[in-house]
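User: Fold both of these, please.

Assistant: Here is the first one.
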Amino acid sequence: MDKNQLGIKYMKEGNWEEAIKAFNEAIEQKPNEPAAYINFGNVLTAVGESERALKFFEKAIELDSNAAAAYYCAGNMYYQLERFHEAKQMFEKAMKINPHDGDTYFQLGMSLVQLDQSRFALPYLQRSVELNERDSEAWFQYGLCLAKLGLIDEAINQFEQCVQIDQNHADAYYNLGVAFGYKEDDKKALAMFNKALQIQPDHLLASYGKKLIEKEGNGLH
């Protein structure tokens, strides 16, 4: 097993110290190959050394300007640091190199959402669910983006898709409740708030939504 593969094995086991040692040796053996730098950066990310991790991703990009994984990992790092404009730039570069990765579309969409550019985020989030059909969080965030843009019926469809995949997604049920409430379907809204609270009894927003509907009456409580 080469040093890169050994490092990946240690990473999967959560043995960060041995992983760092293996990737360091891989870099010493083949200093011009980007993979070890990307993997080293991922270990540093896992142990919370964000700034050092970025340097390794940058080195990988310097060695190979088509290393999509390096751009993607750097984008994730910038996203975690709330440097969303830089994250967006990295994900855009990763997407150009590898236009078939659903995670890249998702992260690019989320970066745009964080930059208050939901309308621009929408097609990327849509593409992410097309590529990752079983990703409940992608469906959820796509639904949230649609809701922000006032596209309530379309948002409902995405939240329903989310809970089909993950039946314990309390936030999706809560947002279904909000959407049905917006459409003045109090019976469905109450059912969704109750479902969210069944999954997460301390869901404050769902609790508030439920109380609001019950306060309005309509014989639903």
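And the second sequence with its predicted structure:
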Amino acid sequence: MTLIVLYLATFVLFLGLDFIGLSTLIKPVFEKSIGSLLLDQFRLLPAFLFYAFYVAVLLWFVSWPAITQDKSLIWVLGNAALIGALGYGTYEFTSLAVMKDWTAQMVATDLTWGICLTAVSATGGVWIARLLA
């Protein structure tokens, strides 16, 4: 039951925070350089698949070990930030390397957001799971 609470709490936090971040932080920066490439409405299935898989990986490497090995929330925050840097950094630096209109500002904004989003979501998920367990 703890694993289900952990997954759901992390997933809801990640989804909710990312909705806010995408609309207020990321979209304005990306519209400046690649606005003509952005959809008016995102595609639900690919977004859901990304969120579901990303949160599962986050639980596998960070959140579940924190629960089962009684790691601190600071440990969760730091390790989740590393997962965020890896995931978002892979996307951003690859895009910067191969896309002609990709900018350093886009990389810095999305990478910073991804690190913070991943760290806060994982830490919040572990905190909620511990609170409810």
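The chain is about 85% helix and 0% strand.
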